[in-house]
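Collaborator request, handled under Task 6.
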Amino acid sequence: MSASSGQGVATTPATEAVRLAFVELMGAERRLRARDQKCGPGELTQGQIRALFTIDTKGEATAGELAKAAELSPASVSSMLDNLERDGIIERRRSDSDRRVVVVTLTAAGQELLERKRTAWRDRGAQALEGISDEHLVAAADVMHRMAGLLDDL
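Structure tokens returned to the collaborator:
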């Protein structure tokens, strides 16, 4: 009924299917990041989008917080922020509580752009998951949370 993984932990065809699907998902995420290198003028990279979502969620963020959220080096984030500021998507200013700290906020144009991206992403996600029951979606979310925890524990 179940096979051993070699470490005394029983696996099943279902757990193996989850493992393989997770590997496929991680590969797709790596390919998505690789496409950032081919991003054309006026397009946002996935790193930029992650950074903008972080600013949107927090209201403002430091370059260090954005580097962590976008999984980029501080030098890459500095260059990214230069471009986003040039394009009118973000603003940088000194923190009110600590003048040594520079915080980044979204401009009105940046908020509009991010909302368009969010709507498009949600629409594509809903379309991809169309026809799957809420019960199955909740179970899938639980599996993804557990797999994220697995990666965090490594």
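The cover message to the collaborator said: "The first helix runs from residue 13 to 35. Confidence is low (pLDDT under 50) at residues 1-5. Please let us know whether this matches your experimental observations."
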